[in-house]
Amino acid sequence: MTTDASPDGTTAHADDGLEGEAARVWGVLTDLYDAFLAGDRARLEAHLDEGCTMWDSTIPLLRTKADLRAGRGGGDNDPAYPSPVGLEASDPVVGLLADDAAWETHVLTARFTDPALDEVLRCTSVLRRDGGGTWRVVHHHEELLTGPGRPAPSRRLAGA
């Protein structure tokens, strides 16, 4: 599924081919990104388990949902670094570990008003389904692949 920000700041989703619980798991992430772009902090945080841990190579101080709430991550508090105006989540892979556990990976492209700031990140999340059937992120990892000061990676595995 792709989450594209239109010029008016809304988002649209393309068909990703996922079905059933895999589609519901992926829907958590795409709605989380929609909430971020809409500035809906409550909706964004509702997708995160209270004990959610985070690892973001672009915001090293952000480790927990409590850090996010306290603004210790940087990001929103750094006027020198703007928020993205568009997010494109693509190439989802979802795995169901059990009836109440899942993982997902995807590529996230963050677009800024200044294209020189655009970033491509590799993301991985682990989710749990609560007793009411709601999937929540218990861990989210974002690794910067390309962006300001970081060119496209060029290493390859031996034999690849």
From TrEMBL:
SnoaL-like domain: residues covered: 28-141
Extent of the signal sequence: none
Pfam families hit by this protein: SnoaL_3
InterPro entries named in the record: NTF2-like_dom_sf, SnoaL-like
The name this protein goes by in its record: SnoaL-like domain-containing protein
Organism: Terrabacter aeriphilus
